[in-house]
Every structure is written in C-alpha cells, then in structure tokens.
C-alpha cells in the first residue's frame, strides 16, 4: 500500500468514484469525525444542531453530482455505518444526511456492534472505501481528523477488506428498516 496525503487521497478517491464500473462501497466505523472544526460533537449544544444538520445536508446536495452520475450508470453505491452505543451527536446528525443519500440512490446499511460476535479481524475493521473489489482507499482518521490514507490495487492487500465486507453483509439492515424498528421517524418521511 502507498500512503497518500489529504490532497492526493481526495484526488484518487474522486478518480476512483468516476471510474467505478460495478460498485463503490464505504465502511464507516468511528463514532465521530471532525467536521466543520468540531472535534467533540457531544459537546455541541442541542440548539446548535439544527444549523449543523442543515449545513451537512446542503453540502451533500451541492456535491452529489459524481454519486448521481455513477448510480445513473448502474454502479451500486453502498455505505455501511457501524454503530456502537451510546450514539454520538455526530451519528444522529448523519441519519439526516443518510436520508439524502438514500434519495440519491445510495444504499445505506447499519451494522450494530452486537451483531459482530467477535468474528472480525479487527486489524482490518476500519474506515475504508472499496471500488469494484479492485481498488481500496483506507482512511487515516486519528481522533476523527482526516489526514489522508493508504491506497492499493494489489489483490492480496485488498483481500482482507473484501472478507470484512462479505462477513458483515448479512449482518446489516437498511437505514429505513433500522430507524423504523425504533419508530424514530414516521416511515412515510424516510
């Protein structure tokens, strides 16, 4: 694997999104990420969350063209969100953003920590993006802060991540069903 700084990683990611033929898969496992300079989402005051949710939603809409194009071209775009409890305010904010992604055609799946049963090799259970099972980008997120990451197109280096993807695939549930099970949102609004 080769390390890419933030800019090189982002360029590579955009290139791979545009070049994907069958599938673009993303696994997100951290409970919080640094967005908008916020490192501790649980310290955000509740009355400030609505503006941050709106800002995130606007960002998704304004940057949706590459994903929409891929979906129109028949590429399956899937994001799997690993949840551990208690949920952070970051995750709660993400639910509203995931709703927009679903409207665009992205498949959002939820994986709870209780479904893993110690089956995973935790050395490989980390944030990653997989393109057509041929290219992988690992995300370097120390403390939730994006610093770039690793890239590989070597089948031997990608194989453990494909195994993670396959292992968790039957343990996920769609976002709509997940939220519906808890009656969090009216089913008509999801």
Oligomeric form: single chain
- Please name the CATH topology: Endonuclease, Chain A
H/E topology pattern: EHEHHEHEEEEHEH
Pairing-aware structural class of the strands and helices?
A: alpha+beta
SSE order and pairing:
Blueprint: E1 2-4, H1 6-19, E2 23-28, H2 46-62, H3 65-72, E3 76-83, H4 89-104, E4 107-112, E5 128-131, E6 135-139, E7 149-152, H5 155-169, E8 173-174, H6 175-181
Parallel strand pairs: 2-3, 3-4
Antiparallel strand pairs: 1-7, 2-5, 4-8, 5-6, 6-7
Helix pairs in contact: 2-4
In short:
It contains 6 helices and 8 strands. With 190 residues, it is an alpha+beta fold.
Task: Describe the model.
- This protein is α+β, with helices and mostly antiparallel strands.
- It has a single domain (2-189), classed as Endonuclease Chain A (Endonuclease, Chain A, 2-Layer Sandwich), CATH 3.30.870.
- It has six helices and eight strands, in the order βαβααβαββββαβα.
- The protein has helices spanning 6-19, 46-62, 65-72, 89-104, 155-169, 175-181, and strands at residues 2-4, 23-28, 76-83, 107-112, 128-131, 135-139, 149-152, 173-174.
- α2 runs parallel beside α4 (89-104).
- The model has no long low-confidence stretch (mean pLDDT 87).
